[in-house]
């Protein structure tokens, strides 16, 4: 079974459906590879003491005290609660304020398809990350990202990835050391 690429029309329809589902949520959310930000509009007369916002490593609940939560459920992935925050901010319109929630992801190499598991998903394969400088990354992460970028470029050009090249180099070295052996029927896997 092969996965066939969606047509541009199917792709556009899928994006439109996803946008409609996200627009229908009572909150907005954005993410980077390392964190997630949620904004929830509330009436302009609300004060911080009127809010009930809690999160644990795997759950979130946010809303106005005495009312059903506006956002509640099991998070798509784990967060660091001690490094996550929330604030109540005033918007340009005096009629509304918003709860701004910042969640610090534990896994900083993973895109979230949704905030809570009961919400509609987004297609994380369509996320285009903001440009970040490789120099911003720590040494180990930087070398891993550089290797992934190199391997991606190699694949796109139909050339061997770094791991495949290592195997080919080992084989070539072995062939040079053993000229008496016939490798014409050898299968490399």
TrEMBL record:
<comment type="function">
    <text>Required for nuclear movement. May interact between microtubules and nuclei and/or may be involved in the generation of force used to move nuclei during interphase.</text>
</comment>
<dbReference type="Pfam" id="PF04969">
    <property type="entry name" value="CS"/>
</dbReference>
<dbReference type="InterPro" id="IPR007052">
    <property type="entry name" value="CS_dom"/>
</dbReference>
<protein>
    <recommendedName>
        <fullName>Nuclear movement protein nudC</fullName>
    </recommendedName>
</protein>
<feature type="domain" description="CS">
    <location>
        <begin position="22"/>
        <end position="116"/>
    </location>
</feature>
<dbReference type="GO" id="GO:0051082">
    <property type="term" value="F:unfolded protein binding"/>
</dbReference>
<feature type="compositionally biased region" description="Basic and acidic residues">
    <location>
        <begin position="1"/>
        <end position="22"/>
    </location>
</feature>
<keyword id="KW-0963">Cytoplasm</keyword>
<dbReference type="GO" id="GO:0005737">
    <property type="term" value="C:cytoplasm"/>
</dbReference>
<dbReference type="InterPro" id="IPR008978">
    <property type="entry name" value="HSP20-like_chaperone"/>
</dbReference>
<dbReference type="GO" id="GO:0006457">
    <property type="term" value="P:protein folding"/>
</dbReference>
<dbReference type="InterPro" id="IPR037898">
    <property type="entry name" value="NudC_fam"/>
</dbReference>
<feature type="region of interest" description="Disordered">
    <location>
        <begin position="1"/>
        <end position="23"/>
    </location>
</feature>
């Amino acid at each position: 079974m092969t996965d066939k690429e969606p047509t541009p029309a199917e792709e556009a329809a899928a994006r439109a459906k996803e946008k409609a589902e996200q627009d229908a949520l009572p909150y907005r959310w954005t993410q980077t590879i390392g964190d997630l930000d949620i904004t929830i509009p509330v009436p302009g007369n609300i004060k911080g003491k009127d809010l009930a916002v809690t999160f644990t490593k795997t759950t979130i609940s946010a809303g106005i005290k005495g009312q059903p939560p506006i956002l509640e459920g099991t998070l798509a992935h784990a967060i660091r609660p001690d490094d996550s925050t929330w604030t109540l901010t005033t918007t340009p319109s005096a009629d509304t304020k918003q709860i701004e929630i910042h969640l610090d992801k534990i896994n900083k190499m993973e895109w979230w398809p949704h905030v809570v598991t009961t919400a509609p998903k987004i297609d994380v394969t369509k996320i285009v990350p903001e440009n970040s400088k490789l120099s911003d990354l720590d040494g180990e992460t930087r070398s891993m990202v550089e290797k992934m970028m190199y391997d991606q470029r190699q694949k796109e050009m139909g050339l061997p990835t770094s791991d495949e090249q290592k195997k080919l180099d080992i084989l070539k070295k072995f062939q040079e050391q053993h000229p008496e052996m016939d490798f014409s029927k050898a299968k490399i896997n």
